[in-house]
């Protein structure tokens, strides 16, 4: 059986179009048409990825996303026509992994979903092979269990924030361009859309830095990229 997707979209014509295409590609698709229904289904069944529209009745997509992230690191791909909502979903601690703007190409959507599931599978299997707890400054990072502490206080990082931090922690001397970060974390081609990197980096810094406007853990090299600070 193929990968299983929870499709949360209140527009039934869009839902049917997406469902039909993914089933042709070998996926199992479970549709939900509002946030409350989606939450009930999510609790009852297991999925490999969630495709989520943000403009939903009963329980909106942002609230649904927040509840899911308290329970799971499942990949979540946002489908939205509103850039402001996307920025919030990616950046304001809600923890979406990626987004695609409406109207979208079905070919691109399928490719994004495959890439997101592939990344999640890779990170899960790779981390199980290691048993590393690393420390830098006031941070302690458990690479096995997606666990980060600062001054003995637990930090709630999203999956993407954790993997960005891990990328720098495990490559302490290396400078990464935005394209290299995108390729490493999203495992996909970079098309110059800086917003995704900027939002995730900003939110990560707000969680790990004492002063996000003057970061010490992940330093900006203007015009080049980023590197881990020296301690």
Automatic annotation (TrEMBL):
Segments forming domain Response regulatory = 4-117
What is the annotated localization of this protein? Cytoplasm
Record-linked Pfam families = Response_reg, Trans_reg_C
Keywords, ordered alphabetically: Cytoplasm, DNA-binding, Phosphoprotein, Transcription, Transcription regulation, Two-component regulatory system
List all membrane-crossing ranges: none
Task: PTM 4-aspartylphosphate: list the residues.
Answer: 53
Domain OmpR/PhoB-type, residue spans: 131-230
- Residues annotated as DNA-binding are 131-230
Specify the protein name: Response regulator transcription factor
Q: Which organism is it from?
A: Bacillus songklensis
